[in-house]
């Protein structure tokens, strides 16, 4: 089931996210985080935005949230999405369910655009974004470095 995040979810969320930090280019973070840091991040997002989790049998299988796209006030109706799944539960439709709920909630809150930022290569993320109606809005060459490799980033946009 999909529900709103609780601070008590932080430990399970950290377990999901730290895999992506340690073993992938999906996030540009390099240092693992702890439960306390994740609680801080959850609180920060919830000040102005929203965060949801997908849970089965008391286990968080994925989470998604939207946050600030840019600092300037004129951007306040545009958000950046983040979605992460337990590495053992990818390809099962959970990401799509989370994203559809994120889109619905974003519309209901009066937001106008969602930006998905994708480290390349990530074909499954590109396919999901395109399936949900996002279009490729930009492409940036070698803007990040992780594991001693330069990484490109694609921006996908959904107008609500």
UniProtKB/TrEMBL annotation:
The keyword Acyltransferase applies. Keywords: Acyltransferase, Transferase. Coiled coil: none annotated. Transmembrane segments: none annotated. Residues 1-160 form the N-acetyltransferase domain. One of its GO terms (molecular function) is acyltransferase activity, transferring groups other than amino-acyl groups. It comes from the Bacteria. SUPFAM superfamilies: Acyl-CoA N-acyltransferases (Nat). PANTHER family: N-ACETYLTRANSFERASE, UPF0039 PROTEIN C11D3.02C. This is Phosphinothricin acetyltransferase. It comes from Hypnocyclicus thermotrophus.
